[in-house]
Amino acid sequence: MNLNATSKANILKTSRELIQQNGWAGVNIRSVAAACGVSVGCIYNYFASKTELLSATVESIWSDIFHHPENEVVFQDTLSCVRWMYQQLEDGCQRYPGFFTHHALGFVRQDTADGKQQMQRAWRHILEALCVVLQNDTKIRADAFTEEFTVEKFADILFSLMLSALVRQDFDPSTVLEIVRRAIY
Asked: Which of 63, 89, 125, 160 is 20 to 30 A from 4, comparing alpha carbons?
C-alpha cells in the first residue's frame, strides 16, 4: 500500500469510478482509500469527512458530465446547446447510474449545507453558460426578452425543464426545443 502518495484529483477520479461500479453505497473513506492504495489518513488530508468527500465527488461528476465539448458549435445557438445538454444528461445517467436522483435526495435528507452549495454551484455554472449562449445567439428575435422576461429567467426555465427530464428519465429534447423556437425565434 502506498501510504503517502496520491492527489485530490486521483481521489475524486477513484470516487467517480467507485460510483460507476457500485453506486453511492460504494463510496466512503475506507473504500476510496483502498481503491487508491493509500491509508485512510491520506484521504483525510484532503477531505475532513465522508460528506466533504461526497460533496467534492458530486461537483466532480457534474464537471465530468458537462465538460467543455470539443466542438464549440454547440454554443453558437440555443437549439444546439439544448440538444447537447440533453445528450450530456443522458450520457451522465448511463455513466453514473442514479447520480442525479440519489445525490440530490441524499443532500436534501442529510441537510448538508456543503453538499447543497456544491450542487448549487454546479447548477449556477451551467445556468451562466446557458445565459451566455442565449445572449450570443444571433438568431433570437430582437424583442424576445424584456425587463420582465429576461435571459436569466428563460435560462432558468430551460434548466428546470432539463432537471425535470432527469427525474422522469426522459431525454427527448423535442418539446423543449419547440418551446425555445416559439418563445424566442
From this structure: 63
Q: Are 134 and 140 in contact (CB under 8 A)?
A: yes
Q: Which residue has the cell 466532480?
A: 60
8-state DSSP, 70: S
CB-based contact 26:86 (threshold 8 Å): no
**Residue found under cell 491509508:** 39
The model carries a pTM of: 0.82
Residue 95, CA distances (Å) to 35, 52, 89, 104, 184 in order:
19, 22, 10, 17, 33
H/E element, 31: helix 29-36
> Which domains are assigned to the chain?
8-47 (1.10.10.60), 60-184 (no CATH)
pLDDT tens per residue across span 30-60: 999 999 999 999 999 999 998 889 888 888 8
Q: Is the dihedral of CA 120, 66, 19, 14 positive or negative?
A: negative
The pLDDT > 70 percentage for the chain reads: 88
How many separate helices (H) and strands (E) can be counted in the chain?
Answer: 9, 0
Rounded CA-CA distance 155/159 in Å is 6
